[in-house]
Amino acid sequence: MTNIKVGFVSLGCPKNAIDCERLLARVHAAGYEITAEETEADVIVVNTCAFIQSAKEEAIETILDLNYLKEHHDLKAIIVTGCLAQRYYEEILAELPEVDSVLSLGGESEIVAAIEAVARGERYDSHSAPETLQLEGDRVLIGNEKSAYLKIAEGCDNCCTYCAIPSIRGRFRSRKMEDILAEAKDLYTLGVRELILIAQDTTRYGLDLYGEYKLAELVEKLCTSTEFRFTWIRLMYCYPDKITDELVRVMATYDCVAKYIDLPIQHASDSVLSAMNRHGGRAVIEDAISRLRAAMPDIVIRTTVMVGFPGETDEDYAVLRDFLAKTRFERLGAFAFSPEEGTVAAEMEGQISDEIKQRRLDNLMEAQYTIHIKCNETYPGKTLPVLVEGYDPVAGCYSGRSQYLAPEVDGCIYFASEKKLLAGDFVRVKITETFDYDLLGEAVE
Questions:
Q1: Residues 122, 171 within the same domain
Q2: Were both Cys, which of 131, 176, 326, 363 would link to 170 (CB 3.0–4.6 Å)?
């Protein structure tokens, strides 16, 4: 039944997107036609997220929207997999009759069998422990072919009190270094030039397999390989308490390592950090930032913080606000605490009203906007290597990113070029001015 057309919808984070790319590869290898047009699909696979309430709502709304295609077009079946399927397997079976197959994370290896079954009008469901999710296998890359994520580990052992990830994704488990290097080689052969290393906790890499942190060694091997040479290697989801001196040395030594790091701190008040079960307090955070900036004065640090955690007092919030004003992170994402079902924090005393959460969040982001604008004002006059990502015919300009901008979460560089460029090209761009979170410039020879 390989004449069935299969569509995919991927929700959530880049780690989830990699799982979707592996699903795509399995379906493609089985001989099924993959279509990007939902109205053409016979079967649609929805790879879901369930990290916070809004992600769960988005997943359910997507499923209900797709059911319209079953009623008014030729869609025969909807298959749901990913985090929502893992966390709410029984609930989906009981409450979403629109879904024809539910595959938990461990059941993703059964995607072809599920497609074959639903295409025949049969039910197919599978649920297993998240640790059975296969971490190896081919991928069909989604998006810019010059930039790709590489997942080096799965699961999480940190057990932050607000987070459901350990219960969804299972215990932390590193991939073997040789398997990661082999995948990196494959990606390079496909034309990838920006490699973005990710995990739930990237800096924990290797501890379970080798008894010590091995991220620095992995990055150094990626930099010194004779089989590939990436333009940029970017580190995301790094934790302050695991920023070793060796990792700082490797980042500073090799030009191919982007002078950029994603370092989520969540808060700066020691009492809140302790209640969150974050490893290391404010002193550890300050030490990691100090060592990174001392070794790489031009480094851009992105962080994520949370406001409105249960018990967060006005004084705690002031500590966070003042810390951000002092530290001046070049990139920052902030969100309000969401009481997630099954987490310790959801049952804590001292829950804070949505009104206070929103007010604190708005004040924080307003202050950060000023910091970001001042950081951007240092760029006009500089010339930066830029990875071209697209062209806007209406605006008549190209868009792209420098090593100081991560995909999806940061701004863009918009620039004019007399020479025709293609997505994936690298070009030198002289920055001429700023516009909110973005930079404007002109390509130079």
A1: no
A2: 131
CA neighbor of 388 nearest in space, from 433, 438, 429:
429
Residue 2: the pLDDT is 65
Hey, which residues does 262 pair with through a beta bridge? 302
Whether pLDDT at 142 is above 90: no
Q: How far apart are CA 220 and CA 228, in angstroms?
A: 13
Do 351 and 407 belong to one domain?
no
d(CA 214, CA 205): 6
3-class secondary-structure state, position 11: coil
In the three-class reduction of DSSP (H, G, I as helix; E, B as strand; rest coil), residue 175 is classed as coil
Tens of pLDDT, residue by residue over 367-391, are 999 999 999 999 999 999 999 999 9
- Return all residues near 188 (Cβ < 8 A) that are at least 6 apart: 195, 227, 228, 229, 230
How many residues comprise the chain?
Answer: 445
Residues 361 and 404 in one domain: no
Q: Which two tokens stand for residue 80?
A: 């749901």
Stated as kind and residue range, the H or E segment containing 150 is strand 147-151
Would you say residue 90 lies in a domain? yes
Quick one: angle between helices 282-295 and 314-327, nearest 10?
10
- Give burial (CB, 10 Å; 0-12/13-18/19+) of 35: middle
Residue 307 sits in a domain of what CATH number? 3.30.750.200
The DSSP secondary structure of 298-350, one letter per residue, reads T-EEEEEEEE--TT--HHHHHHHHHHHHHH--SEEEEEE----TTSTGGG-S-
CB atoms within 10 A of CB 334: 17
Among residues 265, 261, 131, the alpha carbon closest in space to that of 208 is found at: 131
Count structural domains, the chain: 4
